[in-house]
Specification:
The protein is an alpha+beta fold. It contains 6 helices and 6 strands. The strands form 2 sheets. A 3-stranded antiparallel sheet has the order 1-3-2. A 3-stranded antiparallel sheet has the order 4-6-5, with helices on one face. The longest helix is centred in the first third of the chain and has 19 residues. The two termini are 20 Å apart.
């Protein structure tokens, strides 16, 4: 079984490969071409932003130096601080605790996953109910 963190890395690869093949794409087109769920997509964007490989202008994404550091990095910081306090958190509760939108939450989780700062023991196959912990 693939856990959430591994899945987010795989999703980042799908986004990168799709943008590398087709160039700049709108968010809906990119999501359709990668066949990722919203949460997988936003986690992948967070992962790639941490790698400094993706940028967004309006509704369009492209491979380039990121312009998403402030937004996604701040979301990751909020999530990290929650994990310092709570040790283990159900992912679905993070938006309520941090007051982040769900998409921003998943981008922040993708960022932290790429930094190898979080892990999960839960398996994920179309399961949004998993907990994350700090390493």
């Amino acid at each position: 079984m693939v856990n959430a963190i591994e899945k987010f890395g795989q999703s980042a690869g799908k986004v990168w490969n799709t943008l590398n093949k087709y160039g700049t794409l709108t968010e809906p087109t990119l999501m359709k071409n990668t066949r990722l769920t919203d949460k997988e997509f936003y986690a992948a964007v967070g992962w790639l932003a941490r790698e400094n490989k993706i940028s967004k202008t309006g509704e369009k994404y492209q491979l380039s130096e990121t312009n998403l550091t402030e937004k996604i990095g701040n979301a990751a910081g909020k999530i990290y601080n929650v994990l310092v306090t709570h040790r283990e958190v159900e992912v679905t509760s993070i938006p309520r605790i941090t007051r982040l939108k769900t998409n921003d939450t998943y981008s922040g989780i993708g960022w932290l996953a790429r930094e190898d700062k979080i892990y999960t023991t839960d398996d994920i196959i179309n399961n949004d109910q998993f907990k994350i912990k700090l390493k």
